[in-house]
Design brief:
six-stranded mixed β-sheet; Rossmann fold; single chain; 6 strands; 8 helices
Amino acid sequence: MNHLSLCQRMYIRSRRPFRIILMRHAESEGNVDKCVYSSTPDHALKITERGKRQATLAGRELQKLIGDESVYFIVSPYTRTRMTYKIVKEGLEQRQHFAMKEDPRLRELDFGNFQDLETMQETMEKTRSAYGRFWFRFMNGESCSDVYDRATAFWESVFRSMDHSPGTRFQNYVIITHGLMMRLILMRYFQWKVEFFERVWNPSNCETWIMERDERGSYRLLLL
């Protein structure tokens, strides 16, 4: 897009969604019982009954926010995010322009297959903190810096889709993902330093962080 004039770039950006809404999944089995990670794959964990209520409320709040505006969901393919999406969607009124797709890049940080609770607690409390939360890589898994690269690739494809898609221009993008990924998505867009990222903690289950487009076509964070 470097060959485009400033006016052309601003026009393209002005057609981007008015809001990008980041939402963390509802409370999952792993949020209430860490032992399940030793016997159930992380991607297969379901949401709890409390999580279902959280997602129902989140759907109602989303409906209040966007009204009858068009909406495009992008969802992590984990079971808990899929379940959250399904319940949130039920809280929305029917609308003409609605779409959804899954994107594996929105998945949770890979902690390394099945996890022993005692070993994981020691790793989280001692080794990871000493090494640096952003840089530490779990055995057979990922580091936050690895997930940052996924967030970078995600943003690139999202903006390509927004700017060059010949189809419907959606007024809202809703991204249902995981707490860490939400922080890294913001880190990438707002160019946070590592030290700032490490001072930001995960949102609560079904909490939303809202990015709103300004007159220049850039996004500002409303709630954090």
